[in-house]
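Dear Dr. K.,

Following up on our conversation at the group meeting, I've run the structure prediction for Cobalamin-binding protein from Denitromonas halophila. I'm pasting the input sequence below exactly as I used it, so you can double-check it against your construct before we proceed with anything downstream. Let me know if the numbering doesn't match what you have in your notebook.
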Amino acid sequence: MTFRFSALILTLALLLPGLPAHAQLTVTDDVGQSVALPTPARRIVSLAPHVTELIYAAGAGHALVGAVDYSDYPVEARAVKRVGSYVRIDLEAVAALKPDVVIGWRSGNPATQLERLRALGLPVYINEPRSLDAVAHSLRQIGILAGTQGEANRAADAFVAHRNRLRDDYGSRPPVPVFYQIWNQPLMTINGHHLISDVIRLCGGHNVFDTLDVLAPKIGVEAVLASNPEAIVASGMGESRPEWLDEWRKWPTLTAVQQNNLFFVPPDLIQRHTPRILDGADRLCRHLDTARGKRTP
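The predicted structure tokens came back this morning:
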């Protein structure tokens, strides 16, 4: 009997080689780096407000133990311990929370600070969605990291369905040349690789600065005058329309000024890489349709 039992164990070992006690999960982040965790993360630190929002949307809010300033959505996020700002991370505070994974932001977090977190032995996943498809992908990836794939996949599917409805409604309408203004001093816009440009395209618009090399370039007033956008869209910093949007009325030759196509979209709805960006897209699409309606037949 002992011989037979030993033979059975040997046979199973040969048939099932290399089975670990705990299956490791591995994902590739948005800069192509592999991030491996022994088990789904139970303690997560977010290094960007939009990442915090994605974590909750993916059903992993219960695992969030640290977040940067301005992580204010949903309301529950406001009670999470702060670890500095996205441009000035409190590395000691992050390490003290003993996270299973840290989720950073490529174009927002200083690269040197992300490297220091890795040097401390912390797994760091970099998030950098540049398209609406990438927002859905971010939800699915966070779901894998946190073991909440079911809820994350449902959120991603709902996001894609909403995106498709907007594309079907607005994507093939006559194009509207758009200047999207991030800020006034310095005057800043976005290029064609920015997520907001994908939203503009979704609505049947065309970013007049889409060929610039820098993701969020500084430009001059002369460049805006030369591009002569049919619509100017700005978000500013808060829920109120920025006063500087109406400063374009100083240049009455601009088509956007002549047609009174100076539009505002709240920044939380279009400048965060989260499912809420489609709420901003809803508003932007309606604004661009308003611009179309003012054209002379």
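Two things stood out to me. The two ends are 93 Å apart (CA to CA). The CA atoms of residues 177 and 206 lie 5 Å apart.

Best regards,
J.T.
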